[in-house]
Amino acid sequence: MIGKCSSCLLAASFLILSSTAAIGQTELKVPAVRPAPAPEFLLPGPLPFQPPRIPRTPNDPVNPPVRIRFPVLVRSAGMVFSGTVKNIERRPATSGHAVETVAITFHIDNAIRGANAGEDLTISQWIGLWSSGQRYHVGERVLLFLYPPSKLGLTSCIAGPIGRFELDARGRVLLSAQHLAAFRTDPILGGKSRLSLSDFALAVGRASEEE
User: What domain range includes position 182?
Assistant: First the structure.
């Protein structure tokens, strides 16, 4: 009798353990919930650089190509002189003057065309040319070939840097690398990096007579 009861107890225990194991196995097989992948954000690529545009003034002189023969430079000039920069003044656009300008005053040391030695001469230059690099500073000594004034009263150096020469402490005209390249075939200026004002004036007179 005792043996049968023991067998029954063992069987019941076995069934309970089997059920518990089965439940545990079922719980272990529950799949884990995976988090949803984070959304990908595409960053836009770099935008192309657009440099600001400086508006042109219709009546402002158009610079000819840099490679210009000296006689063409001379004949195109309305004013040719050497002088010292005395004053620089920025002038805003007004009802009477449609564009912003820079007024540069020179004391004329030597006049070759369109100016008088010893006087103070003020020219007006479009602010766009000043912003692009055609600048002066007070005390600077230069020799300039300037366009005849436009309808707006504006002028600037012919062909930009080609129409502008620096002077040294002795008053001699200095020719830059651009000048040397442009005027290498000129009989007076060719191959010379500096000239006296008298020799330069002679070159101007000779060039003005050429056809």
Answer: 70-209
